[in-house]
Structures are given as structure tokens and as C-alpha cells.
Amino acid sequence: MEQRDSDAGAPTLGVGMVGYAFMGAAHSQGWRTAGRVFDLPLRPVLAAIGGRDEHAVRAAADRHGWAAAETDWRALVARDDVQIVDICTPGDSHAEIAVAALEAGKHVLCEKPLANSVAEAEAMVRAAEAARARGQVAMVGFNYRRVPALTYARRLIADGRLGTLRHIRVTYLQDWLVDPDFPLTWRLEREHAGSGALGDLGAHIVDLAQYLAGEPLVGVSAQLETFVRERPLLRGASAGLTASGGAERGTVTVDDAALFTGRLASGALASFEATRMASGRKNALRLEVNGELGSLAFDLERLNELSFHDHREPAVTAGFRRILVTEAEHPYLEAWWPPGHALGYEHTFAHQVRDLVVAIATGAQPMPSFADGLQVQRVLAAVEESARKNAVYTPVPAAGADEGAGRAAQAVQAQV
Questions:
Q1: N or C: which end of the chain has fewer CB atoms below 10 A?
Q2: Span 82-101, mean pLDDT?
């Protein structure tokens, strides 16, 4: 499926990306950068970017280094120079684009959350399983797994440094909706976004909890709230974030905040808070994992650091110690800067590309798989059901055999 560069003799991987806004820019950075930092078995080529607004998508192509622009995603999928389709659109189009791309023989990378519903996610998993039999791969883009400190935390937990897990607590706090006059964008409309803070932020922290623990959530008890139920309408599709000058307002159909507890398969307890209404918090993702032998803590605002406590040390000297995750022996760091030179948010997308390209070249299943994305979707659906029932404990449906095998492979896969 890959092409060969006739000049350099190096195998290339033609990339087509649908979507060009915030995530499109972040993914473009990853595709541009990965091959210049890591020794990849395939060289990503930015073949085409797609979007409905011809002027905007052309400007994005020029800004981010894409060779061509398309205004119809179907035309992008059909291009002979595209071997992988990267989906960075709102959730309401994920399933249609992903299934079509897989059926067209392409590899697929899809942004999180995988879909807007469990049914859509299940259809995507079926398409991915059929494509896998043809040698294609599909991956969902939970980029925080690629923060070196969090990848290292997963390694420590898998190695038994915390012993039996007892608690996981995660919060993801933002404040961009605090202003009641912030306009009604697509992220605030259920038909486009699927859900609000729950899907946007909650999907990340559910995936991180399951990734770090190496096991799924089996039940939740939840509350959701929409604090501002009407917001100003935008002037038009190209109005950016400019609200209408008049008093016309539209209904917010998603949650502003999600608060829920959960139980992992092993019996460990978990708690989650996701909100876009926390004044003063811009992108505050914090987590802590407690086990019988120790604890780990992480703060995204200090993303090169991991706090570790070994409970077996004498009490007189024990406590959390700071691990600066910048050594060449730490995940992904062998290709970057000397120890102590920090990485940032954008590097997670280069790491994501590194792992995906290696998987394509070796025929391995990249993680997280679409089955992993479906598991997250089932947790989100259980959260919504629990909230509708006023925080009643709601089981998360068990995965099928193929999905369980995917998670088992994730749990035992060698960490980078």
C-alpha cells in the first residue's frame, strides 16, 4: 500500500487529513515533525488536506505544508497518493469518513472521542476488524498517552511498582465557557459534538485511567450539569467566534460539566471531574494513582515531571519525589534534546505519528485501537445514563471477544 520515493529510494506514506482547525493544526505539526526527529521506517508525505470552505482549507494547506487541498472528503479518500486518512472533524462525521476510508483500503487515524454514539463506534470497530484482515490498521488519537511522563507512569504501574491499585482520581478543568456570552459553537450542539465536557475532556481522562491501570471501568455513578443553557448565535459559518450583534440566542444541548465515580474490573475505585466552567483553569489535567506499594501523580501544566512515592521507604524519609522525565532512557526521549530540555504539548502528536507509522510498517496493531475507543464510548454512554437516573450506579457493557483481546494486547504490549 505504501509508495516509494524514486529520488531517495525511501518508502513513503501519503497522508490525507480531513479537518484543518485546532486539531488539524496539531496533527499537521505531528506529521511534519515525526520523520525529522525519529528514524521512521516510512516517510510521511503530506499529500492532501480537506475541508468544506475552499478559501480556508487552501490557506491551511499553505500554512501547514500540505501539497493539495480538497473540499470534498470523498475526493480526498479516493486519491491514489493517500494511504492513510487522518480524521480531525467534529464527531458527527467520524463514523462515515472512517468506514468509507477503511473500505477504500486506507489506514485510518481518528481523533477522540471515536464517535458520537456507541452504535457509530461499534460500526467503526466492525469496519476496522474487516480492514485488519486486509492488512490495514486503525487507531484513535488519545494523544495524552504519548506524554513521556504518562507513558513512563504506565510502565511503572505495569512493572508492579505501585502493587495492587486502589484509587485513581483524575480532573480535567478548563474555563473557556465561563462567560455566558461566549457564542454557540458546534462544540455546544449535541448533534455535532455528541456531548460537552464529558466527550471533549472526559474521554481523555477515562482513556488515561484505563490505560494507566491496564484494565477497564466496569461501572459508573454520575452527574452532569449545563450551567448556561442559552448562548448568542454566531453570525454565520465563517464568523469564527464572533457572536451576533442582536439578542438572538440558541439552546446549549450538551453538558458544561461532568462529575462521576467509577469502579475498575479489579475493584479499584476511580473518580473523575471534567468541566469547561472552572474559572482560571486553562487546560488543567491532573491525576493521581494510589496502590498498596506507592503512588504516582501528574500535572499537565508540568508535563515533563512525574511525582512518585514509594511506600516501602522508611516513614522518616518517605514522601513524593520529583522525576524529571527528560532522560534518553525515558519514553520517546532518545530522539529529542539533552536531559533537562523540556518538551511540550505538540510533541505528543509527533510521538503519536511515530507509533502509528511503526505499526503500519511492521503490521502491528497500533494502540489505542478502535476497540479501545469503543470502550471509552461505552463508559461515556454509561455516565450519561447514570446522570439521567440521578447518579444511579450504571454498569458499563462488557466488551466482545475481539475488543477484549485488543485491550489485553494493550496491557501487555512493550512500552516505548
A1: N
A2: 98
